[in-house]
Amino acid sequence: MINLELPKFLKAGANQAHQAAAEIFRPISRKYDLAEHEYPRELDTLASMMEGMADGGKAFSGAKGGRGDEKKKQEGIRNGGNMASLLNVIETCWGDVAMTLSMPYQGLGNSAIAAVATDEQLERFGKTWAAMAITEPSFGSDSSAVSTTAKLDGDEYVLNGEKIFVTAGERADSVVVWATLDKSKGRAAIKSFLVKKGTPGFTVERLEHKLGIRASDTAVLRLDNARVPKENLLGTPEIDVKKSFAGAMATFDNTRPLVAGMAIGCARAALEELRRILEEAGVVINYDAPAYAQSAAAAEYVRLEADWEAAYLLALRAAWMADNKMPNTVEASVCKAKAGRAGVEITLKAVELCGTYGYSERNLLEKWSRDSKILDIFEGTQQIQQLVVARRTLGLSSKELK
């Protein structure tokens, strides 16, 4: 059975994340939303604090987050790194999604490293700030269509290709790049490589202007004969046709619950603000009364809160399974799909219920509605998540069900 009571050490970490969100993220949220692409310098202080916590054995998240803590496992505490990362990201995104995505050492590439890197690689790359580069101009959510190539030349791989919509692509220290070792062998040959910034032939082409998460940089990256040590291929270099590219896809089992957590945190912020505004307007929210016996606004709020609760519990389940070494591909996609959809609906409905006040820049409701949309898109759209769940449920391959 799943025990949903959180251990004390997880609650303590979440409380610290909430304090950072309340005291650092929220006060500067609007400032950097209006100053797109300007790096939030205030995050440097938080990064230093987090590095100190990591050195003291209290990792905020980072590359090692997904592996858990061996001492805690020996003590019988199974909820480890994945659950801690999820709870932390919920709290920080309650403060600001873009700030969370801009935090050094907390990139989605770090979760990718935790998912597929060897122990030796985890030791070497554990303190890097890693972005993740998958999407290309020729495809969006279909990760199997990767066309960036990696050719072994002596002790180095030579990478060529273009990556788009890379979160933290300019600011991160390094990027986890998905590339194919052999196009003729299909998706089985797709591997991930850690490419450090400053590598010759690896350039940032431009930054995107966006609807939301404006404080976070989103870059277009180009690899033109970029050479990386062969030891930077994450995981094993063997091409196993039987396993397809399951190793690379395991990355999503770690990152999709985190993106769900981002949507959950942002939606919770909107719900709390909506409730405050409704109660100030004299709206009474009664959990014991049926919907028809309450005002339309109160009934709608209760419905939105129930939707949020469902997304939250699904994300907890996916993270718990990952920490307990259970296959969670379906659960990761389910929680991502549910949270992404719920986050968009909750934040938009909050704007709607608050009328012109919600639509204005007098508070952060309109910003949260803009930020939430990307959380329903990246790491796989609704359609992709539904395909993943359907294929696993029906036992069909990607060729049989498109």
UniProtKB/TrEMBL annotation:
Catalytic activity: a 2,3-saturated acyl-CoA + A = a 2,3-dehydroacyl-CoA + AH2
Alphabetic keyword roster: FAD, Flavoprotein, Oxidoreductase
Matching InterPro entries: Acyl-CoA_Oxase/DH_mid-dom, Acyl-CoA_Oxase/DH_mid-dom_sf, AcylCo_DH-like_C, AcylCo_DH/oxidase_C, AcylCoA_DH/oxidase_NM_dom_sf
Protein name per Swiss-Prot or TrEMBL: Acyl-CoA dehydrogenase
Residue ranges constituting the Acyl-CoA dehydrogenase/oxidase C-terminal domain according to the UniProt record: 248-393
Family: Belongs to the acyl-CoA dehydrogenase family.
Organism lineage: Bacteria, Bacillati, Actinomycetota, Actinomycetes, Mycobacteriales
Cross-referenced PANTHER family: ACYL-COA DEHYDROGENASE (PTHR43884), ISOVALERYL-COA DEHYDROGENASE, MITOCHONDRIAL-RELATED (PTHR43884:SF12)
A UniProt-annotated Pfam family: Acyl-CoA_dh_M
Keyword hit for NADP: no
